[in-house]
Amino acid sequence: MKKLLIIFVLTTTLVSTAQESVLLRVNYNQGDQYEMNMDMTQDMGASGGMHMNMKMSMDVKNVSDTIFNTEIHFKTVAMEMNQAGTKMAYDSEKPNEDLNQMEKQLKAGFDPLLEATILVKNNHLGEVLETKFEPNNPALKDYADQSSGIVFPKKAVKVGDSWEMVKEKNGVKMKFVYTVKSIDKDTVVLDVSGDISNAAEGTINGSIEIDRSTGMQQKSTLGMEMKVMGQNVITRIESTIKKAE
């Protein structure tokens, strides 16, 4: 009888753990500050490739019910590019007097981004309601995607549950499928899959770790393999976000 009781308790515990559900929500606190790092590599075969690293900060300026207003600043940008045999590099931390002519041209392109403040308003599901740049610069519109991430489902999810999100930009449609891989007391881990269509064709894969208390994407790895105008392009993006000390 005692052995049967132990087995029953263990089984009940395992079933309860496996069926644990969580309501994923953005839950920032006003005044919180986060440090963000994004590392991207792109391989285009004989046509060349690129490696870029960006460091950003995010300040939670205002919280009103389920609406969050944040400010994002790009702190540093470092890039190495090989375009059909022509190599270029740029590092925003390199002193101006040490820049060559090509680096000065790249600096002119990156300076507006480094000098701008991105104002983002989103709700508790992670939906971006509004994005503004100060000062306003139409050339920075493409960077608005850096402020958008997962849109959480309205209902609670458990291990094995999935939901979809679609993004469209410049004629490229990307369908992301998020599947809950594991849940513990601090973190929810998602597997990412999906496909790319329209102006490009390809697949998406990766993983994301979400902090349960804030809804913040602590760590993510995203891979995309696609064909654009007959050219094979492999992209890998690794991002980390942590609370500033």
Any overview of this molecule?
The protein has 245 residues and is mainly β. The protein has 2 domains: 26-148, no CATH class; 153-245, no CATH class. The protein has helices at 2-18, 101-115, and strands at residues 21-22, 33-43, 48-64, 67-83, 86-91, 117-123, 128-134, 157-158, 162-169, 172-183, 187-198, 201-211, 217-228, 231-243. The strands form 2 sheets. Strands 2, 3, 4, 5, 6, 7, 9, 10, 11, 12, 13 and 14 form a 12-stranded antiparallel beta sheet that branches. The chain has a two-stranded antiparallel sheet with strand order 1-8. The longest helix is centred in the N-terminal third of the chain and has 17 residues, at 2-18. 16% of the residues are buried. Residues 1-17 have low confidence and may be disordered.
What is the count of helical runs?
Answer: 2
Secondary-structure element series: HEEEEEHEEEEEEEEE
Which secondary-structure class do the elements indicate? mainly beta
Measured between the Cα atoms of the first and last residue, the distance is 53 Å
Total number of strands: 14
Low-pLDDT residue intervals, each spanning 5 or more residues: 1-17
Number of domains as seen in the coordinates: 2
Overall shape? globular
Main sheet characteristics: 12 strands, antiparallel
Helix content: 10-25%
Mean pLDDT score: 88
| Percentage of residues in DSSP E strands | over 45%
